[in-house]
Write a structure and sequence with these properties.
- The protein has two domains: about 150 residues, 2-Layer Sandwich (VC0802-like); about 160 residues, Vaccinia Virus protein VP39 (Rossmann fold, 3-Layer(aba) Sandwich), CATH 3.40.50.
- It is built from ten helices and 14 strands.
- The strands form two sheets. The protein has a seven-stranded mixed sheet, with helices on one face.
- A hairpin with a 2-residue loop joins β6 and β7.
- The protein is of the alpha/beta class and about 375 residues long.
- The radius of gyration is 23 Å and the shape is elongated.
């Protein structure tokens, strides 16, 4: 794949701009933002770097075939004509999934079955055998995206979702997705030098993502495998070049501290830190947020407080009121960023947000808000 190809990087709602900037920094061209995706072009190295180095992509797809079809039979016929032996061989197990937005094609599962049959029949006609389908652990994952009559077939280069970094051995209740955690940090504009704290750190995901960013470590370093390693045109030498490229890595003495009232959470976070190899760069404290003393300002806090899984609403309202009081007393000079899916609880926080965004933590719509705590006049610190 020396020539330029078209790719689609998937991400979470609200992180498109961040991912766009990440892709540009690795040399992606023709970068174009869409809803929960960023389209771009590049070569093999660009593809490998997009998987290995970006913090906010969940999946990287390569476009391999585009056509128009008026009905399912036409789709089957055109898909069957494609030279699938350029993509896979008989020994490869494959799987197909689909996204359909069309008045013509109304059943996404049926479309996936049609494409699966077209691929299998292509091999049967040429070799007298069909490759195996394995939806659980395919060597080759194929996607079809249909918009009205426009059909695009893409290859999944990532394998497992890129949020599954590989460092998280265990997780606490209601953990935050690694890609979302990285997105929260990048959205905050943290300079990667001032102290970083998460006093309700749970499994430690936000802390680990902060350390990776501060030290310039690629998140792909922990992964055991990427989907593209099963491709017929996998170029091991290019991948080794990407894997061994440490030009972005840097020495960092940035203070990164986390805490949690749950001993179990701290134990889980400690295990995850050790597994990531970053335990020397992150301090953990087993204590309540109300006992937690942050480093001297200026600094930044990013945290994911409870918002309803385990507490009743009246308990949450009191907790958020106490949080607001605690932050006003102890975090002068800090930018505090909270992500919360409980709007009623946020109303009790007692601080006015200087910035608000809408993000999703899994299916939960959340507000991601910045509260700037400062002494003196009530003039806005941030425009």
């Amino acid at each position: 794949m020396k020539e330029k190809c078209e790719f689609v990087a998937k991400t979470l709602h609200g992180l498109e701009e961040i991912l766009s900037n990440e892709l540009k920094s690795i040399g992606a061209e023709n970068v174009e933002i869409d809803r929960r995706v960023v389209k771009f072009s590049g070569n093999t190295e660009t593809l490998y770097r997009a998987n290995f180095q970006t913090h906010t992509a969940t999946r990287i797809l390569k476009q391999i075939y585009h056509f128009k079809a008026k009905n399912e039979d036409e789709l089957y016929g055109l898909a069957k004509k494609f030279d699938w032996t350029s993509i896979m061989d008989l020994s490869h197990k494959f799987a197909v999934d689909s996204v359909v937005n069309s008045d013509v094609f109304t059943h996404s599962h049926f479309i996936a079955l049609k494409l699966k049959d077209a691929i299998a029949d292509h091999f049967r006609d040429r070799f007298g055998k069909r490759p195996f389908v394995d939806p659980q652990k395919p060597h080759i994952q194929i996607h079809i995206h249909i918009s009205n009559q426009d059909c695009t077939i893409l290859l999944d280069s990532s394998g497992e979702s890129l949020h599954k970094r590989g460092y998280r051995l265990h997780q606490d209740v209601a953990p935050i997705n690694e890609v979302l955690a990285a997105g929260l940090i990048l959205l905050s504009g943290w300079d990667r030098k001032t102290p970083f704290v998460d006093p309700m750190c749970g499994s430690g995901t936000i802390l680990i993502e902060a350390a990776l960013l501060a030290k310039g470590i690629s998140p792909g370093i922990f992964r055991k495998e990427f989907g593209f390693e099963n491709w017929l045109d996998f170029d091991k030498s290019i991948f080794e070049k990407v894997f061994n490229d440490d030009t972005n890595e840097k020495e960092s003495d940035t203070v990164i501290i986390g805490g949690d009232i749950s001993k179990n959470a701290i134990n889980i976070a400690s295990d995850n830190l050790r597994n990531s190899g970053l335990q020397k760069f992150i301090q953990l404290k087993s204590q309540s947020i109300f006992d937690f003393v942050p480093p001297q300002a200026p600094g930044i806090m990013i945290t994911n407080p409870p918002y309803g899984e385990r507490l009743r609403q009246n308990q949450l309202d009191v907790f958020y009121r106490q949080l607001g009081d605690c932050f006003k007393q102890r975090y002068t000079g800090y930018d505090i960023w909270l992500i919360s899916g409980n709007r009623d609880a946020l109303k009790n926080f007692g601080l006015h947000p200087s910035k608000t965004m809408t993000l999703f933590n899994g299916p939960i719509e959340c507000k991601y808000q910045r509260f700037s705590v400062y002494s003196g006049s009530r003039k806005k610190k941030h425009q």
